[in-house]
Amino acid sequence: MRAAIAIVKKDLRMEFRSKESILAMWIFSLLIFVIFNFTFEVSRLVMLEIAPGLLWVAFVFSGMFGLNHSFALEKENGNLRAMALMPVDGGQIYVGKFLSVTLIMLMFEALIFPVFIIFYDLQLSLQTFKLIPVLLGGTIGFTSLGTILSAVAVHTRNQQILLSLLLWPLVSPIIIWSVTLTGMVLGGEITASFYPLLTRVVAFDVIFFTLSYMLFDFILED
Amino acid sequence: MAIPALQIKDVSKDFGRIIALRGINLSVDPGEFVSILGRNGAGKTTLLNIISGVSQPSEGSVELFGSDPSDRQNKAKLAVISHEMFLYDNLTAMENLEYYSRIYNVPDSAVRVEQVLRDIELTHRRFDLVSTYSRGMTQRLTIARALLHEPALLLLDEPFTGLDQHAIGMLINLLRKQREKGRTILLTTHDLHTAKELSDRFIILEKHRIVKDGMMADTDPDKIRNEFFSASTAGVEV
Question: What is the ipTM of this complex?
Answer without folding.
Answer: 0.87
